[in-house]
Amino acid sequence: MDMSPKEYKNYVEQKAKKSPIVKDVVLAFVIGGLICVVGQAIQNGWSAMGLNKEDAGTATSVCLVLLSALLTGFNLYNKLARFGGAGTLVPITGFANAVVSPAIDFKSEGFVTGMAAKMFTVAGPVIVFGTLASAIYGAILMLFQ
């Protein structure tokens, strides 16, 4: 089949599936919001058990990371992410999923060369940037105080 670039572009546009952008945005908002509601419920529970606000926030973060890691291990977080899209990527649970998923995918290559080496392929740059940015920010604060 011999087509000009314009004909090929028209052909691709006809065959390409239209993106349901409004549906995707609404689902991301709802799922991301529900994750935040769960986080708030966990934080309220820690506060009710007597933790102060800062400690309850820390305990909530740990719980959300643990919950996300467990759901990733049981392949439930990926199903939620397919449904909720970007709503699952932004909260701390998305970060935990980004660490656990490669570790699961590469566990067959061994503990050190598989899991340990590949665990931070996605999250590693984020950790490095965050650590570097916080060190620079801390140095600037130290210099100007």
Task: Tell me what you see in this structure.
The protein is an all-alpha fold and 145 residues long. It has one domain (23-143). The protein contains 7 helices and no strands. Helix 2 (21-48) crosses helix 3. The longest helix is centred in the N-terminal third of the chain and has 28 residues, at 21-48. The termini are far apart. The model has no long low-confidence stretch (mean pLDDT 86).
List keywords for this structure.
145 residues, 7 helices, single chain, mainly alpha
Mean pLDDT: 86
What best-fitting shape do the alpha-carbon axes yield? extended
Structural class assignment:
mainly alpha
Q: Please trace the helix and strand order, writing H or E for each element.
A: HHHHHHH
Number of strands: 0
| Residues in helices, as a percent range | over 70%
First-to-last CA distance: 71 Å
Please report which band the strand proportion falls in: under 5%, 5-15%, 15-25%, 25-35%, 35-45% or over 45%: under 5%
Short overview:
Helix content is 77%, strand content 0%. With 145 residues, the chain is mostly helical. It has one domain (23-143).
Reconstruct the topology from this structure.
Layout: H1 5-15, H2 21-48, H3 53-73, H4 76-84, H5 92-105, H6 111-118, H7 124-143
Helix pairs in contact: 2-3, 3-5, 5-6
